[in-house]
Structure formats: structure tokens, C-alpha cells
Amino acid sequence: MAFYIRVRNVQLFNAIYAEAPPHLVQTKHTAGTYTLYTDNALLWHELFLYGQILAQDQDAYIDGGEEEPLNLQ
Questions:
Q1: CA dist., res. 34 & res. 6, Å (int)
Q2: Is the pLDDT of residue 3 over 90?
Q3: What is the mean pLDDT of residues 35-57?
Q4: CA 1/CA 33 separation, integer angstroms
Q5: Per the count of CB atoms within 10 A, which of 5, 14, 15, 32 is most buried?
Q6: pTM for this structure?
Q7: How far is CA 30 from the centre of its chain?
């Protein structure tokens, strides 16, 4: 399974991505939605909590969870 964090605000996405080790995440942008994927549950948990704090401060949309792995390459 892959863990994801999905947002609509690019500044929020960039802030979350800046805290992630690039070799442990993949990203995807579609129709105004920015998604970060990782297989690392601990990393996902830390990034999602951080993202929730930022999203609450900005009153921005954030979603996260687990889904089937995607082939993003």
C-alpha cells in the first residue's frame, strides 16, 4: 500500500514536500490537486501532521490516507 497526502494549495504542497526526503516520496499533479506518495508509514504520519497544522492555519484543504500503489513513472 502507498500512503498519500493530497492538497489543492501549491504553497502548502511545497512546504510539505520541502520536509520530505526526495528519495522516499513521489509526487503527482492533476486538475489542481497536488499529491505526495510514500511507502514509509512513519514519514507519512509526520508529514501529514505537519501538513494538517499548516492547512488549519491557512484554512486549506488537505486529505491523506492509504491506497493501492500507483506506477507514477
A1: 6
A2: yes
A3: 97
A4: 20
A5: 5
A6: 0.90
A7: 13
